[in-house]
Specification:
The complex is a heterodimer of chains A (147) and B (796). By secondary structure, chain A is mainly α. Helices cover 71% and strands 8% of the residues of chain A. Classes of the chains: A mainly alpha (147), B mainly alpha (796).
């Protein structure tokens, strides 16, 4: 199923890749007010990556990604911890969060704050972890089949 | 003043790692720079000491700074005679050891930056421990000495001996350190404060029995026992004495520091510190006496039987530590001149360790049987070793003699006070160990320096003068205090007066002909005879019987623990998932129904009716979704092929997502669907790895195990159902959900409460969760790596 090349799977996963990624970004940004958020967006983003890895092979996807999944997860973890600890250095409580509300011409109202950074950390951890686990399973399976 | 003290304690901690950074540039000259760090500490401690010294008395002073005020834990330090004495010993010895290391490391060790860094960290930990007033602060520094000494003992980590010695020391002192933690916490609870000085002032001059009720006394005893075990572990007392000789695998400067002045003295320090607390508790003196004297005797005999230069010194140290612990066990008798005893040991033992290092450095062996005739090569070291060795033996004119005479007179006094009987054992122990120490000291001096060269194949490398200087200075100290005990004793007594409230008797070399003098002289005579006899048979009897070495027992204990774990693991079949899942799940099911059956029967069933369920408008569509869920679940069980089972499982998952949707939980539904998709991909990947037989229809069924699993499954399902029913009961809990929904816009600036809970209200939970995710991934990677390796290995 995996080692025999399927053109349908390949084409479909290439086709839907962009759509699901955009959808996941949408989910991520909408998170604070509507269903979505870092965790869900993270899973949504990792699914097309997994599909691509299944059809094109893990090395190809890793080459395209340019960053190792585990480093991505680690960066996310540092980001999340950073946004939680930095306020304590500035004299605020742990996990203190700040929101900014501004009005940008043409685009409309903008609400942004440190929770977005924290959520971005969660997103990166989820993408990194889920792809790393499944990629390494894929590699194990493939290496066994070759051997 | 607290700043000065903190500079003294923390300067090595901060500047030590800095040495590491500049070490590549300075190479062997780093030692000169490193000298400044202990110097800073000494100056700071002296400055603090002078500020509390007036009219020949030290007025104890506490300095503190908030740390965790909510738990009553502050960075509180106590400056009194005890801490100043130990602080000065630690920092001055630190200075000498750094000077000595500069020459010792010159050729032998390449990465001396790392060495000085560890040494400084250790020094900082030591200073923190002795100055700590808060018990928790004390413990933190105490454990830090354990960690840094592990690094120092295992410094030559490429050698198996070093690793073994370091691990042994670490496990032993770490284990006893944990017991100490328990003891200190118990003490904190009993006195309702973790400040040592407050505890002492609470006790005042009262006996513990009058402060505490009879029901509390057992807890006090337990605290005392735990604290003493901590002290005994650190000071290598019986039955923990095995780690010290094994820790001799450390570089010699480390041994000279850790095992004469610093780490092993911590147990003594703790005994001194805790003395005012426990002195009135029965059992305190007795424990110290017995443990101390047993250790002293064992150490004395073993040092006599060793052939390894550093091993000899290690066992004499064990013996001397027993001597010191036993000295405190004498009660008020043992409080006079206690610092004199400790300082005596620091002087001669530090000096002898350094001498041993010089010998090993220049001749390349530590087997005393091969060494000889070094007096002509290094006359200064020969003089040093003679003075220090005679002090260890306790020959008149040295500090050791004065110290031993005090001990003898006190022990004899103990016997008369208690009316003889079993108390005669104590002078007997003292006699045996002192005799052995005399013979060992004479052997050390004579064999190393004054007899003929034994092994002419060994090339001797002449040590530099500066290398020989630090031990010489220490031995001069021993000589000075030995010749003028009155002056030295007077100085030390001023340090001593703060906490002990004892006015000591005068020290002198000669008190006139009395019992202790005769006893001491007879020890010396028999010691010389013992040496002569051993010399006559050419020390053929040496070597310690294996069965008496505790380290073999310790090592078999450690491997026994490993074996036990393996055995339990095999019995539980943890290598097979089906087995351990069955065990875990059945445990939960049985425990749940055993404990919760009645509660569920009485609380859930009466309220449970369909009206309650219909609150949420039980629609036609809910029924359809519900029955589809039921059908797909039955399919999981009924399907004959594994792949069909997986697909049914996946369908169930998607249906659950749908069901969430019906109950207006879009976040949950979305998550469920996405997870289901990812899980399906994972299953499909794994499926190609499964053995082909798995995909065949199952033919034979083991009814017994299937029946058991069926019961467990039904029990588990019933458990989950009742848990859900309990948690959704209208009035069982005050629900938090409403609070989050009400405040999500005002407090978290987001209208989706689910997400604001995740990133804002309960952000700390999320942090924990993502950490767990990453850790779990690392675990999976590790498992897959070993799996791949196995596959690779079988290919070879």
């Amino acid at each position: 199923m995996i080692n025999t090349k399927s053109h349908i799977l390949e084409s479909v996963s290439r086709l839907i890749f962009l759509f699901i990624i955009i959808f996941s970004i949408y989910l991520f940004l909408k998170g604070h007010n509507e269903p979505g958020g870092g965790f869900i967006a993270g899973i949504a983003a990792s699914i097309p990556l997994i599909l691509l890895a299944m059809s094109l092979g893990v090395p190809t996807v890793q080459r395209v990604l340019k960053i190792d999944s585990l480093s991505l997860a680690a960066t996310g973890l540092i980001l999340a911890y950073g946004t939680s600890f930095i306020p304590t250095l500035l004299g605020y409580p742990f996990l203190f969060q700040k929101m900014i509300h501004t009005h940008i011409p043409i685009l409309g109202e903008l609400h942004i704050g440190t929770p977005v950074l924290f959520d971005l950390g969660v997103f990166m951890v989820v993408v990194g972890v889920s792809t790393k686990i499944i990629f390494s399973f894929l590699e194990t399976v493939n290496s066994k089949e070759k051997g | 003043m607290i700043t000065t003290l903190l500079i003294g304690i923390l300067a090595p901690l901060v500047l030590g790692p800095a040495l590491l950074l500049i070490s590549p540039k300075l190479k062997s000259n780093l030692g000169w720079l490193a000298l400044f760090i202990p110097l800073i500490s000494i100056l700071a401690i002296v400055k603090v000491g002078l500020s509390v010294y007036s009219n020949h008395v030290i007025n104890a002073m506490t300095l503190s700074m908030d740390w965790v005020p909510s738990l009553g834990i502050n960075f509180s330090f106590l400056v009194d005679g005890v801490s100043l004495f130990f602080g000065l010993v630690v920092s001055i010895m630190g200075l000498l050891v750094v000077l000595y290391s500069k020459y010792y490391l010159h050729e032998t060790v390449q990465d001396n930056g790392r060495f000085y860094c560890y040494l400084m960290l250790f020094m900082s930990a030591m200073l923190g421990t002795v100055f700590a007033n808060n018990l928790i602060v004390l413990l933190v520094f105490w454990e830090f000495t354990g960690i840094t000494s592990f690094l120092l003992i295992g410094f030559s980590h490429e050698k198996k001996d070093s690793r073994r010695g370091a691990l042994m020391a670490f496990i032993t002192t770490g284990f006893t350190g944990l017991l100490l933690l328990a003891g200190l916490i118990l003490l904190t609870i009993l006195f309702e404060t973790s400040d040592f000085s407050k505890i002492v002032s609470l006790i005042g001059n009262n006996s513990l029995a009058t402060i505490f009720s009879a029901s509390q006394l057992p807890y006090l005893k337990a605290a005392m026992a735990l604290i003493l075990i901590g002290a005994f572990g650190k000071s290598a007392q019986f039955p923990f004495q095995y780690w010290l000789p094994n820790a001799m695998a450390a570089p010699t400067p480390v041994s000279a520091y850790l095992h004469s002045a610093a780490m092993v003295k911590l147990g003594i320090f703790l005994t001194v510190r805790m003395y005012p607390v426990f002195k009135t508790l029965s059992g305190w003196n007795e424990t110290l006496l017995w443990v101390g004297f047993i250790t002293m005797t064992i150490g004395g005999i073993f040092s006599f039987l060793s052939n390894d230069l550093k091993g000899i010194l290690a066992y004499t140290t064990v013996s001397q530590l027993g001597f010191l612990i036993g000295f405190y066990g004498l009660g008020t008798l043992g409080l006079e001149h206690d610092f004199f005893q400790i300082l005596n040991h620091v002087f001669y033992k530090g000096s002898l360790f350094m001498v041993a290092g010089i010998i090993i450095h220049s001749i390349g062996t530590k087997d005393i049987r091969k060494i000889g005739g070094l007096a002509s090569v290094m006359p200064l070291t020969a003089i040093t070793a003679t003075i220090a060795g005679l002090s260890m033996a306790g020959i008149p004119g040295t500090m050791g003699f004065v110290s031993k005479e005090i001990m003898v007179s006190k022990v004899l006094e103990l016997v008369t006070v208690n009316g003889g009987g079993i108390y005669w054992l104590f002078p007997a122990c003292l006699f045996i160990s002192a005799m052995c120490l005399i013979a060992t000291s004479l052997r050390f001096i004579y064999h190393c320096f004054y007899r003929k060269i034994q092994d002419s194949t060994l090339s001797i490398h002449k040590p530099k003068l500066m290398f020989q200087l630090p031990p010489f200075m220490l031995s001069l100290g021993a000589l000075f205090l030995g010749l003028f005990p009155e002056t030295g004793g007077h100085l030390l007594n001023q340090l001593n007066s703060g906490i002990h409230h004892v006015s000591p008797s005068h020290l002198a070399i000669f008190h006139g002909i009395n019992e202790p003098l005769l006893f001491g002289l007879s020890i010396i005579t028999t010691g010389f005879i013992l040496f002569a006899v051993a010399q006559a048979v050419n020390w053929r009897f040496t070597g310690i019987p294996k069965s008496l070495l505790f380290e073999t027992h310790f090592l078999s204990l450690i491997s026994g623990i490993k074996l036990l774990g393996k055995e339990i693991g095999e019995k539980l079949h943890v290598d097979k998932q089906q087995n351990y899942l069955t065990i875990i799940i059945s445990f939960f099911v049985i425990a749940f129904w055993y404990l919760g059956f009645n509660t569920i029967l009485s609380t859930v069933l009466p309220i449970f009716n369909l009206d309650y369920l219909e609150q949420d408008t039980l629609h036609f569509i809910h029924l359809i979704a519900g029955s589809l869920l039921a059908i797909s679940s039955i399919c999981i069980i009924a399907a004959r092929r594994t792949i069909s089972k997986f697909i049914s499982l996946s369908v169930t998952g998607f249906l659950v997502g749908f069901y969430f949707m019906l109950y207006k939980a879009p976040d949950l539904a979305l998550t469920q669907m996405l997870i289901e998709a990812a899980a399906l991909a994972l299953v499909l990947i794994l499926f190609s790895k499964m053995p082909k037989t798995l995909n065949k229809p199952i033919e034979s069924v083991d009814y017994l195990s299937s029946g058991f699993k069926l019961i467990i499954s039904i029990g588990f399902g019933a458990m989950m159902t009742s848990l859900i029913l309990v948690s959704t009961l209208p009035s069982s809990f005050k629900h938090m959900g409403k609070y989050f929904i009400d405040n999500t816009l005002s407090l978290a600036k987001g209208s989706n409460a689910v997400n604001t809970i995740l990133v804002d209200f309960r952000g700390f939970d999320t942090m924990g969760e993502i950490t767990v995710l990453v850790v779990a991934t690392l675990g999976i990677l590790g498992m897959l790596a070993t799996k791949n390796k196995k596959i690779g290995a079988s290919d070879d």
